[in-house]
Specification:
By secondary structure, the chain is of the alpha+beta class. The chain is built from two helices and three strands, in the order βαββα.
Amino acid sequence: MIVTIANEVSSKTLEEIEAYIAGEVMHNPNMNGERVHIDRDDYTSVDGCNAYAAASLLAGIHNILG
């Protein structure tokens, strides 16, 4: 799964997002064993094979972003 975070997101917020993702990978059965790679780009998105897990992760990231 590839998570793209917008360049304008602060380093502190990125750390919060990374911690959130690590928690989801550990505790969410839909993401069990998922490998997540984080990139920076012009926009925030999640691309993965499991559409439900990707949508759920993106919703959580948007909650952090406010």
